[in-house]
Amino acid sequence: MAELPPTKTPFTSDELVAALRAAYRGQMGADATNHAIAMLAAHVALETGNGVACIQWNVGNFKAYAGTDSTEFTTTEYIGGKPVTMRCLFAAYQSLDEGVRSYLKSMWSHWVRAWNMGVIPGDCVGFAQGLHDQGYYTAPVSSYMHGVARWYAWYMAKLGGDSEATVPELQPIAVALPDATPDPPDAA
To answer: To which H or E segment does residue 138 belong?
Structure first.
């Protein structure tokens, strides 16, 4: 497998929703509920600055694994509760559709706690806690959960849910790119 340069591969929220719906239908054999799409899109939005800071179509910021192309870039991980900047090797994909298919398959087959506790019931707290319990992220649970919740409300409003929200301006958690998105707004 090849190591690729850390090239930004931005996408829009509409492109993400379409890719998630297609991947879900292809892998699950049924259409996804709006709350499932909103939860998955919220997570991707948090990880990628809502598509602005996506690198090599890796919508979940998955670390590199056997059988994938890879790319290396600087990220922030939390070690002992403290943010640490380091270079890590991440998976790289050839298109948004490929990245979303891999992301979705990983979510329902590997990150089962988050899938069952968050995606299926539309529960942001359960989703963030499930990911944390399985070691998906190292950031503080409360800040990660709050970020997912803000993006979830925005995507639910976009998809016709009953939430009203403005676009959160969040710094991606795993991708530390200073020009990607502004700092998050103060918590409400």
So the answer is: none
Q: What is the mean pLDDT of each run of 10 residues along the chain (188 residues)?
A: 93 98 96 95 96 96 90 88 90 97 96 94 95 92 94 94 50 39 40
Instruction: For residue 165, tell me if it sits in a domain.
Output: no
Pairing of β 82-92 and β 3-4? unpaired
DSSP string, 73-91: EEEEEEETTEEEEEEEEEE
Burial status of residue 164 (CB atoms within 10 A of its CB: 0-12, 13-18, 19 or more): exposed
pTM of the model: 0.84
Alpha-carbon span 24 to 21, nearest angstrom: 5
The amino acid occupying position 77 is E
Taking residue 121's Cβ as centre, other Cβ atoms within 10 Å add up to: 12
Domain hosting 47: range is: 3-158
Residue 93's CATH number: 1.10.530.10
Amino acid of residue 74: T
Please report where in the chains the tokens 């499930």 appear, as a residue. 130
Helices 96-109 and 13-28 cross at an angle (nearest 10°) of 50
- Give the count of domains, the chain: 1
CA distance 148 to 46: 6
